[in-house]
Every structure is written in C-alpha cells, then in structure tokens.
Amino acid sequence: MEEVPDHLDHGLQIVFVGFNPSLLSGELGHHYANLRNNFWRILHQSGLTPRLYEAAEDGELLKLGYGFTNIVSRPTRGAEDITREEYNEGRELLRGKLEQYRPEITCFVGKGVYTEFSRRKQADWGFQESSDPVVDGVKEFVAPSSSGLVRMPMPRIVGIYRELSDYIREHMPLS
C-alpha cells in the first residue's frame, strides 16, 4: 500500500501530525480519509477552515497555511500496529521535516503522537509550556485525536482546536 504524501512547505502556520494513515487513507492517498474520522469537521467547526473540506482536498490546505504529515508513514488498521522501530525511525524523520520546514506551530493530533515524538511522559491539551521544545522555535500544540473512537465529547474537542484557531487569528493572520 502506498504511503500518503506529506503536504509540507516553508512558511506554514500549522503542520498537523498524526500517528499514521489509516488503511483507507493509504488506499485513497489522502489524510484523514475515513468518514468516521472527524478531522475535517473539527477544523471547520473550530474556525480553522472557512468551510468544510473533504479529505481529497488535503493539499488545498497549503493555501491556508496548513500542512500534514505523520510520525509513521505506513498505513495500518490502528496505531497499535506500529512497531517500536517504526516509531524510532519516524521520530527522527519527523524532527528533520520540522527542522527543514519550520512551521510556526506543530499540532499533534493526539496526546500519544506528542508523547511518542517528544519522549515526554505526559502532556496537557493545548500549547505546551516547555522551555525545551523538541524543535527550537516551533510551538507545540497537543489536540485530541480526531478518530471516531475517541470518547471525549465533540464540543470539548472542537473547543481545544478553537484555542489554536483563536491563536492563529490573533497572532498570525494570513497576508
């Protein structure tokens, strides 16, 4: 199965980082393609996007200043299928991507994605207050997973993403 291509560029406001693509995303070649995944609805409801996008339009979000990648590129049924070796390799590859492209903010879509990447034992929702970010100069934001399996109420999830939207509007309006 093909890897889902990254959507990265210099000058991005946010790069969204997931665990890895779902099998359906791998088949279709687009991020967050599973209809049970709430990612696109969350972005719209939180104010991060002006309209509801579809997974097939993931590359279009570069125009909004948003990029996409994963800590592991291999599509799997679930994150539990990712091997320790894949995480170790993915961690270094992701660090290299973030150092190369230097987005303003890295949004980790799930606490587990952030703790795997940062090697920190825990994280709070929202901006991480660490004086030692993994990539110097790149703000770290931890948001809930958008998986349909997440038990957190949707209004709470959207509210956390809205913090990111509010920050963008206040500190980094698109020119």
From TrEMBL:
<protein>
    <submittedName>
        <fullName>Mismatch-specific DNA-glycosylase</fullName>
    </submittedName>
</protein>
<dbReference type="InterPro" id="IPR036895">
    <property type="entry name" value="Uracil-DNA_glycosylase-like_sf"/>
</dbReference>
<dbReference type="GO" id="GO:0006285">
    <property type="term" value="P:base-excision repair, AP site formation"/>
</dbReference>
<dbReference type="InterPro" id="IPR005122">
    <property type="entry name" value="Uracil-DNA_glycosylase-like"/>
</dbReference>
<keyword id="KW-0378">Hydrolase</keyword>
<keyword id="KW-0234">DNA repair</keyword>
<keyword id="KW-0227">DNA damage</keyword>
<dbReference type="Pfam" id="PF03167">
    <property type="entry name" value="UDG"/>
</dbReference>
<dbReference type="GO" id="GO:0008263">
    <property type="term" value="F:pyrimidine-specific mismatch base pair DNA N-glycosylase activity"/>
</dbReference>
<feature type="domain" description="Uracil-DNA glycosylase-like">
    <location>
        <begin position="6"/>
        <end position="153"/>
    </location>
</feature>
<dbReference type="InterPro" id="IPR015637">
    <property type="entry name" value="MUG/TDG"/>
</dbReference>
<dbReference type="GO" id="GO:0004844">
    <property type="term" value="F:uracil DNA N-glycosylase activity"/>
</dbReference>
